[in-house]
Structure formats: structure tokens, C-alpha cells
Amino acid sequence: MFTPTLMQGQRILVTGGGTGLGRAMAEQFLGLGADVAICGRRKQVCDETAEAWRAQFPGRRIDTFGVDIRVAAAVEEMVEAIWQTGGLTGLVNNAAGNFISPTEALSPRAFDAIANIVFHGTFYVTQGVGRRWVAEAKAGRWQAGQPYRSVMSIITTWVDNGSPYVVPSAMSKAGIDVMTKSLAVEWAKFGVRLNAVGPGEIPTEGMSKRLNPGEEPGARSKAHNPMARTGSMAELQHLAAFLMAPGQCDWLTGQSIMMDGGNALATGGNFYELRSWSDGDWLAARERIESQNAKDRAQRG
Length: 301
Hints:
Layout: E1 11-15, H1 20-31, E2 35-40, H2 43-56, E3 62-66, H3 72-84, E4 90-93, H4 108-138, E5 149-154, H5 167-186, E6 192-199, H6 205-211, H7 219-224, H8 233-244, E7 256-259, H9 263-267, H10 279-300
Parallel strand pairs: 1-2, 1-4, 2-3, 4-5, 5-6, 6-7
Helix pairs in contact: 1-8, 3-4, 4-5, 6-10
């Protein structure tokens, strides 16, 4: 679909790039000639991913960082380290957290666990990178006619209408949507483009076990999606490459693209059907989610 050198000369940071959607997008960039940096709380996972890539993409630069993006100082340290070795041409905000829960059952800690990753963390990384791009433009190291620097943020298909049972994520992703539109205007004159993508269901371990616990991955989409299927990693990879590669459509900025087979248009793209769950259903779901959380904590340790 794209030429193998489409992204040659690019260097892109993908948050949450060691697994799932982030890994797939970063791998696509590498395959098109870009260098990448990936970060995540589980540095060992990032390192293992990078090691596999180095064998697959010899000659590409691949940097890894063990960073909790909820910590602004840690984000700043990572971004400064990247700039000490040449800076970036692109950023993909992919790191996220989510789980289903009745809102009345949420503790402040549970709310903060999502909001601090999804919204605060995304802002910290975007501002840290964007601040340096703005400084470069003011110093004359970017001028009109040169390739734009690009930010792509992963949002959700329910940013416009909200969603029951995932309120912390819905609020945070809506904030990222607003940030995308606001900064697209504010930073355009400095050569920075920002767009967002709301993928429908593309089954991954983390997503499936926290948002559809106990279900067959993809079963809900097959039953309710207008196309009667889930999305594929390849479809997200192609869209990400189009948005991040220079010269594809540089006038596209401040947009939120929903890639979900028309599901949000048909159903709102949310978790309304969970209104029929009993207390026992919610208890079973919580136990499965906590089991997945414990597995992730063990890997971070």
C-alpha cells in the first residue's frame, strides 16, 4: 500500500508501544523506513519488543524507555533524552487505561488511575514534545514548506456522546479530543499537525480482558457492528501511516477519525447494553479485571 521508504528520515515516539495497538503502529513505521522510540511502564516488555524488531528491521534506530507517563518529571526526562539524540518528527499518544465499572462503585483512586494515564499523561507527553517543536520553529529550525511534525492520539468512538460504565475513560478521551482540536489551531504556525483516531474493537489482551471480561474477543462487535466484524491491526496500521507520514495530506489537522465500521453511528459505540447486568455479573467482571491487573503488575516488577 505504501512505498518502503515513505517514512525514511522520520523518528516517532509511540507511548504504550511495547504491546497491542502501539506495537502494531510502531512496527508499521519501522517497515516504512522510520526510526522509533517506545515507552511503557513495563520496560522489559518494551525491550523484548525492540529486540525482536532489531532482527526484523536491521539498521533502524529503536529506543526504549520505562516511563510512567502519569509522572510529569519522568516524561520530561524521557523527552529530553530523546532530544539529546536528535529529537522527533512525530508522536503517537497510545498509552491508556480502561475498565468497565458502575460509576457509583468507583473510588477516587480508581478514577485517578484512568484519568492520570489517559488525560494527564497524554498532555504531559504532548506538551513536552510540542514545546520543543515550537522552540525549534521560533529559532528558525522549521519554516513553512518544510515537512510538518505530526501528533496522532488514540481516542474512543464515544467522545461525542459519552458512554456509561466507562466514565473516567470517556471524560479523559473527550479531553484529548478537545486538546487535539485546540492545539491544531495553536501550533499550526509552528509546523505541527494534530489528529486523533477512535478505533472500534480491535481485540487485544488488555482491552478484551478489561472491557469485555469473560466474553469471546470480538463477539460483541460480530453481533452488533454494521459490518458484523471487528477491525484489524492492518487497518489501523494503514491509517496511522497515512496520518504520520509526511506529504500524504498535510492540510489535514484537528480532525478525529472514527474507524469502527460505522458502529458509533449505529449504536453510539458505547456500553449501554451493560445496563442489564446483575450485581453478580459485575462482581465476576471485577474479579477478572483484577486478575489481569495483577498479571500486569507482576510484569512491571
